[in-house]
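Hey,
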Amino acid sequence: MKATIRTSGTQLRLQVGDVVTVDRIETAPGDTVVYDRVLLLEDGEAVTVGQPTVPKAQVSAEVIEHFRGPKVRVFKLRRRKNSRRVRGHRSELSRIRVTEIKGA
């Protein structure tokens, strides 16, 4: 069974056992997170499309770890104006493992 969920403004296509990286979740590693914004369920030949979500469908996942993403440097330069700016950014991320997909 496969499911498409929406989390943090992104859509993820998941199946049981997948390990994915998402924006940081405020839970401790080892805890379970339940996503109820399931947009699509695919079970063999049967496909259920939500309007906008599939009612009573859930995806359960276990939080494996929290970490920070790679450092991104943003450099802005305005030529011939002696204007430069350097900013940095690192995203806070969580790695999760899908444990269960419940259909409607």
